[in-house]
Design brief:
The protein has 14 helices and 17 strands. The chain is α+β, with helices and mostly antiparallel strands.
C-alpha cells in the first residue's frame, strides 16, 4: 500500500470508492474513519491531511482510538460530549486540545458524524478535523486583552471613586462655602459649609438661580455681570467684596472668587464660586481704625501743649545760661518730635483708611524735588552717604508733599536697616511715561515670606524690635500714596544682602473716572 495515499476501506462499498477517495485526499482538513462495530472504536482510515496535521505516520495511527491525540490531557469536557454522541449515534461538533507527535499543542475542531447501513445500523463514524490553533490563540489574546482592559477599567473606576471621595472630603472640610453654578447661574450643588453658614438646607437651594434663593440677598448687577462673564470668555474673578444682610444670619461681608470648572475637558459649562466670610476681619479692622483715629486725635492736643512748654523752658534755660537742664530738654524735645511724627502717621493711616486724605496735584521739577529731599535727609542722617545718580528731566504732576513722605520713609528705612553700611544709593530713571526711583541699601535684607506683607498696616518684618524701632505703618502709608498717584511700589531683596525699594509714578496724572 502507498503510505502517502491511504486507501478507503473496502467495507464502505466499491461503487463510490474511487470518487470518495479522490475527494477525501484533496481536502485540506484531516479525515478519519473509525469502525463502530469493533471494540474501542479503532481508526481504520486517515487521509494525508490528518497525518500532516498530527505529525504521525499512517502506521502510528491505524488501529488506535482517537483519544491518543489528547496524550495525558484527558480531563476535557469536550471528550464527554464526544463520548455521549458516539454512544447515542449522533452528530456532534467539539473543540479539543490535541498534541502532535513532537508534543506540540494544537487546537482541533472535530466534526463527527455516524455512517449507517441499509438497515439503519451504525457501522462507522467519520471525523473531519480542522486545526484552529491560530484562531484559539487570537481568541485567547483577545480575551487576555479584554481582561486587561476590564481590569484597567476596574482600576480606573476605583481610582476615580477614591479620588472623588478624596476630593469630596477636601471640599467638605474646606472652611469656605462652595457653590457650583451652570451657565444659567442655577445652583447645581453646594457643600456642607454653605448650608451651615447660611442656615439653608441643600434642597432649598439646589436647582434655583443664585439670585432667587433666600430673600433675594444675592441680587446685584455687578455680581451678576461678573458671573455671566466667567464662562463665555473664561474670565475668572477674585476678591470681589459683597456686603449685605442675609436672612437667618444678618449682615455679612463676603469675599467671592469664581472660575470656570475644567476637569480634563469636562464640566466646562460650570462655575465654581468660593465664598469667604470676612465679617469679623473687617469689623476688627474698623475697630482698629477707629481706635487709631480717636487715639491720634486725643494725643495731638496734649502733645502740642507739652511741646510748647518744653520750647518755653528751652528759651528760659538759654536766657539764664543754665546748662544743667539744656541737655535734658533737648532729649525731651527729640522724643516729642518722634511722638509727633508717630501721631501724624497714625492720623494719615486713619485718613487713608477712611478716604479722607486730600491730595494737592501740581506740576514740579522732579529731579530738583529729589535733590532737595535728599539734602534735607543727609543733614539729619550724617551716618550714611546718600548717593544719587541718573535723572528724569521731567515735570511731574503730583502731590510733592505726599511724595516727599514716601522718599523720606524709604530713605530712613534704608539707613535704619543697614547699620553696618555707610552708603545708600538712589537711581532716577524714566520708564515709558513713568518716573522710576530705586533706593538701594546694603543692610539686613528682607525674608521672602515678608516681602509681600511689609506694605500692610502695622506689619513689621521678622526683626527684633529692640534693634529696629517702629510700628510698621511707614510702608503702608507710602504704598497708599503711590497707589493714589496710580503708580507702583515694590521691593527686591535677599536676606542678609540688602534691599532695593522701587516706585514708579506716571508723569501726567491719569484721568480717573
Amino acid at each position: 500500500m502507498d503510505m502517502s495515499q491511504p486507501e478507503i476501506p473496502g467495507s464502505l462499498g466499491q461503487t463510490t470508492l474511487k470518487l470518495f477517495e479522490a475527494a477525501v485526499n484533496a481536502t485540506s482538513n484531516g479525515v478519519v474513519i473509525t469502525d463502530h462495530q469493533q471494540p474501542d472504536e479503532p481508526i481504520i482510515y486517515c487521509n494525508q491531511a490528518f497525518m500532516s496535521l498530527t505529525g504521525y505516520a499512517y502506521e502510528d495511527i491505524i488501529g488506535h482510538n482517537c483519544r491518543f491525540l489528547q496524550a495525558d490531557d484527558r480531563d476535557q469536557a469536550a471528550r464527554d460530549i464526544l463520548r455521549d454522541a458516539i454512544a447515542k449515534g449522533e452528530h456532534c461538533k467539539i473543540e479539543l486540545r490535541n498534541y502532535k507527535k513532537n508534543g506540540t499543542l494544537f487546537w482541533n475542531e472535530l466534526i463527527m458524524s455516524p455512517v449507517k447501513d441499509e438497515q439503519g445500523n451504525i457501522t462507522h463514524f467519520i471525523g473531519v478535523q480542522n486545526d484552529i490553533t491560530g484562531r484559539k490563540e487570537a481568541e485567547r489574546a483577545l480575551k487576555s486583552e479584554q481582561e486587561q482592559l476590564e481590569q484597567r477599567v476596574r482600576d480606573r473606576t476605583y481610582e476615580l471613586e477614591v479620588n472623588e471621595a478624596y476630593l469630596a472630603s477636601i471640599v467638605e472640610t474646606v472652611r469656605e462655602s462652595l457653590v457650583v453654578l451652570n451657565q444659567e447661574l442655577m445652583i447645581l450643588s453646594v457643600n456642607d459649609h454653605f448650608c451651615q453658614f447660611f442656615k439653608l438646607a441643600e434642597d432649598e437651594v439646589r436647582g434655583k438661580r443664585l439670585f432667587d434663593i433666600g430673600r433675594g440677598e444675592w441680587n446685584g448687577p455687578e455680581l451678576e455681570d461678573l458671573l455671566r462673564n466667567v464662562l463665555p470668555s473664561n474670565n475668572p474673578f477674585e476678591g470681589f467684596e459683597f456686603d449685605n444682610t442675609f436672612a437667618h444670619i444678618g449682615r455679612k461681608v463676603l469675599v467671592l472668587n469664581a472660575r470656570q470648572v475644567t476637569l480634563r475637558g469636562k464640566y466646562q459649562d460650570r462655575i465654581l464660586l468660593a465664598i469667604e466670610d470676612k465679617t469679623d476681619e473687617r469689623d476688627a479692622e474698623q475697630r482698629k481704625g477707629d481706635f487709631v483715629s480717636i487715639a491720634s486725635h486725643e494725643m495731638k492736643t496734649p502733645l502740642t501743649s507739652i511741646k510748647g512748654n518744653i520750647q518755653m523752658m528751652q528759651r528760659r534755660t538759654e536766657k539764664n545760661n543754665d546748662g544743667d537742664y539744656a541737655g535734658f530738654l533737648e532729649k525731651a524735645d527729640r522724643s516729642i518730635h518722634r511722638l509727633e511724627k508717630l501721631v501724624s502717621d497714625l492720623l494719615d493711616v486713619a485718613g487713608l483708611q477712611e478716604g479722607n486724605v486730600v491730595y494737592d496735584y501740581r506740576r514740579f521739577d522732579f529731579d530738583k524735588f529729589m535733590r532737595d529731599v535728599i539734602d534735607s535727609i543727609q543733614v539729619a542722617q550724617p551716618s550714611h552717604q546718600i548717593i544719587i545718580s541718573g535723572e528724569t528731566n521731567k515735570q511731574l504732576e503730583g502731590d510733592a508733599s505726599r511724595l516727599e513722605q514716601v522718599v523720606i520713609n524709604l530713605l530712613n528705612n534704608a539707613i535704619k536697616y543697614s547699620p553696618e553700611a555707610s552708603q545708600v544709593h538712589i537711581y532716577l530713571s524714566v520708564v515709558s511715561n513713568y518716573v522710576k526711583v530705586s533706593i538701594t541699601d546694603y543692610g539686613v535684607g528682607i525674608k521672602p515670606e515678608d516681602q509681600k506683607k511689609i506694605f500692610g498696616r502695622f506689619y513689621r518684618a521678622g526683626q527684633s524690635p529692640g534693634n529696629f524701632q517702629g510700628v510698621g505703618i511707614g510702608l503702608y502709608i507710602s504704598n497708599k500714596i503711590i497707589q493714589e498717584h496710580r503708580g507702583s511700589l515694590w521691593v527686591e531683596s535677599n536676606e542678609g544682602e540688602g534691599s532695593v525699594f522701587n516706585f514708579t509714578v506716571p508723569v501726567d496724572r491719569p484721568n480717573i473716572s
